[in-house]
Write a structure and sequence with these properties.
The chain has six helices and 32 strands. The chain is mainly beta. The chain has three domains: 9-171, Cupredoxins -  blue copper proteins (Immunoglobulin-like, Sandwich); 178-350, Sandwich (Immunoglobulin-like), CATH 2.60.40; 372-496, Immunoglobulin-like (Sandwich). The structure holds copper (II) ion (CU) (3 copies).
Length: 497
């Protein structure tokens, strides 16, 4: 029922593309020679209005980047299987926790009830436990690229950084725009891992946790430097997700502008062409790439991004042995000045006709005014880190997360402006559950785009406008540097009638 297997076809590495090279053809790609075929990623697709999924989280030796690694996996694969459905569909997801610790699931970016058997992050599914998630995706839910990951406070960074992430794709109007549906589609799920020579994960240590752990191995959909075929005059649709625990991505594609058609929470009004895309952990972008070059291969590069450091406080805490810059440890960007190659697009063949970009994508309403203004201060402070001793804790309005406490009460259907004031020396990408929002510019005008993560840069502010639609209940907001969330930077909100 609704379950099919998606077979990606993997070409052997020929033509001097190096051992890591593997060209992936899309679902619309013509058949090709699977010279070193391995089991393709699993895929669950809804049928007759129902998406039936079985997900098992377990510690497994998995195939990753051409080697084996001992990770946490959904259904034995990293990233987890693709779930694909339409708005209005019913979802029945049987989740089995075979990890040696409790966990749960969050449907990142979706607009679902935050309670009951839906997007409820207050659930705790014990070791060996089974839970049946069951909900209906609203008929008016925007099409988009969402994702499933664990969300049990205190364990999120570890569980996600060990591999637990799976794409959850809702199809809709955007997918039916002729130019968009004609494009070859690929999901690029970026994760990072720190493994030892035997493929076992390395504990990050306390300093890396406070900064937000980053792994030196960056993978794209479980591969190192995969290649995606583009036809001359053709169109590629790359759906990008930053599923790493803390690493920011700053992406550029050699000699090709990227035409953004959707942000986190749905389509833009028209494509927006950019040369660079910054993706904080958890963020997604949907981009079209035109095959305008003659031939060759072009790199998708991750450029350096400075997301700050621990400042003087970190230096004191690390006994002064922190940094060369005299202000404590900073975050390694994992890149040299010219950046790190993550993937390539490779020209092969020619499209029968020249494929064009869509002119318009749809209407995007703006939230033109708000009735309530709130401010949230992001701070750090010294405190105990369980099992590790004294370290840095992260606070919202002076408090650490407590699931028993209601931090903010809002009215259903109210439109509010939330301003974040970052008093720390690190960027914090704040994610709000249940409802997407619009960024408000310094001119007071909302961006016509739906997001669920706002980057609040070190020592600066950011404002979003949000409307609490359809669902009442308790939900959360938090920093999506998942170590910061685990170290306290999360708060509850109660949406009430
Ligand atoms: Cu998330
Ligand atoms: Cu943070
Ligand atoms: Cu969350």
């Amino acid at each position: 029922m609704g379950m099919t297997r998606r077979q990606f076809i993997v070409l052997g590495s020929t033509a001097g593309v190096g051992a890591a090279g593997a060209a992936i053809l899309s679902r619309r790609g013509s058949a090709n020679i699977p010279s070193s075929a391995q089991r393709g990623p699993e895929r669950f697709v809804s049928a007759h209005g129902l998406l039936n999924v079985e997900l098992v989280a377990a510690e497994n030796w998995v195939h990753l980047a051409g080697t084996r690694a001992l990770l946490y996996a959904f259904n034995g694969q990293v990233p987890g299987p693709l779930m694909e459905l339409e708005s209005g569909d019913e979802v029945r997801l049987r989740f089995t926790n075979q990890l040696a610790e409790p966990t749960n699931l969050h449907f990142h970016g979706t607009h679902l009830s935050p309670e009951g058997k839906a997007d409820n992050v207050f659930l705790q599914i014990p070791e060996g436990g089974v839970f049946d998630y069951s909900f209906r995706v609203p008929l008016n839910h925007p099409a988009g690229f969402f994702w499933v990951h664990p969300h049990l406070h205190g364990r999120v960074a570890r569980q996600v950084s060990l591999g637990l992430a799976a794409p959850f794709v809702i199809r809709g109007v955007l997918d039916r725009i002729p130019e968009v549906s004609a494009a070859r589609e690929h999901f690029l799920i970026v994760q990072d891992f720190e493994l030892d020579s035997r493929g076992r994960p390395v504990d990050p240590g306390m300093s890396a946790m406070m900064l937000g752990r980053e792994g030196s191995l960056i993978t794209v959909s479980g591969m190192r430097n995969p290649q995606y075929v583009i036809e001359q005059d053709g169109l590629l649709r790359l759906r990008l997700l930053n599923a790493s625990a803390s690493r920011f991505l700053r992406l550029t594609l050699e000699d090709h502008p990227m035409h953004v058609i959707a942000t986190d929470g749905g389509g833009l009004a028209a494509p927006q062409s950019v040369d660079e895309l910054v993706l904080a952990p958890g963020e997604r972008r949907d981009v079209l790439v035109q095959g305008t070059r003659e031939s060759g291969s072009y790199r998708l590069i991750n450029l350096p991004y400075d997301r700050g450091g621990m400042g003087m406080m970190g230096r004191g805490m690390m006994g002064g042995r922190g940094g060369m810059m005299g202000e404590g440890p900073r975050i390694s960007t994992g890149s040299d000045a010219t950046g790190t190659e993550l993937a390539r697009i490779v020209y092969q063949g020619r499209s029968e006709q020249r494929m064009l970009l869509p002119h318009a994508l749809g209407d995007v309403d703006a939230l033109l005014s708000s009735t309530v203004r709130r401010s949230f201060e992001l701070r750090d402070a010294m405190g105990m880190i369980p099992g590790r001793g004294m370290g840095m804790r992260f606070l919202i309005n002076g408090r650490e997360f407590d699931h028993e406490r209601i931090d903010t009460r809002v009215r259903l259907d109210a439109v509010e402006d939330w301003e974040y004031v970052n008093s720390t020396t690190m960027d914090h990408p704040i994610h709000i559950h249940t409802n997407s929002f619009q960024l408000v510019g310094s001119d007071g005008r909302p961006e016509r785009a739906w997001r669920d993560i706002v980057i609040v840069k070190a020592r600066s502010r950011a404002r979003v406008r949000i409307r609490f639609r359809d669902f009442v209940g308790t939900t959360v907001q938090h920093c999506h540097i998942l170590d910061h969330e685990d170290l306290g930077m999360m708060a509850t909100m109660l949406i009430e009638r």
